[in-house]
From TrEMBL:
Signal peptide: 1-21
Superkingdom field: Bacteria
Listed InterPro entries: 3D_YorM
Keyword Signal belongs to the record: yes
Entry keyword set: Signal
CDD domains: 3D_containing_proteins (cd14667)
Name used for this protein in its record: 3D domain-containing protein
Length: 141
């Protein structure tokens, strides 16, 4: 019986160490914490969209507004989503949460894009699947 218990423990340990060795981010094979259906819009670094002319545009955490980041509505932040988390937006890809939207928005994600033409291509998309990725916390991965 002890041999079977030891063998089981060794196999369990080997399986656990193999699964923890793979830390690369992929939109497939990563279990999600939470998937929601959300409205997706886009915004640019233009000061007219971020506090008005004469205002230095940046994110809620002080980083520059740039491609690859998103602003999320405050209800999502209250539900456990956080700055530095990675999200997968179906049809658009993986983004990092670095900004916050105005409090009037609910279940909405604003994708940062470089210019108005790119923002107009996204437009306003409704009922889009967004998944909060488990392995997406902060720059440390």
């Amino acid at each position: 019986m002890k041999v079977i218990t030891v063998l089981f423990a060794v196999l369990l340990f080997a399986a656990a160490s193999t699964s923890s060795a793979n830390t690369s981010i992929s939109t497939k094979n990563i279990p999600s914490k939470k998937s929601i259906s959300a409205t997706i819009t886009a915004y640019t670094p233009d000061p007219r969209e971020n506090g008005g002319p004469g205002t230095k545009s940046g994110t809620a955490i002080g980083t520059p507004i740039r491609s690859g980041i998103v602003a999320v509505s405050r209800d999502l932040l209250r539900s456990g989503w956080d700055y530095g988390n990675k999200v997968h937006i179906k049809g658009l890809g993986v983004f990092i949460i670095e900004d916050t939207m105005h409090q009037r928005y609910r279940r909405t994600i604003d994708v940062a894009v470089p210019d108005m033409a790119s923002a107009q291509k996204i437009g306003k998309m409704t009922d889009i699947e967004v998944t909060l990725l488990e392995d997406g916390h902060g720059a440390d991965g």
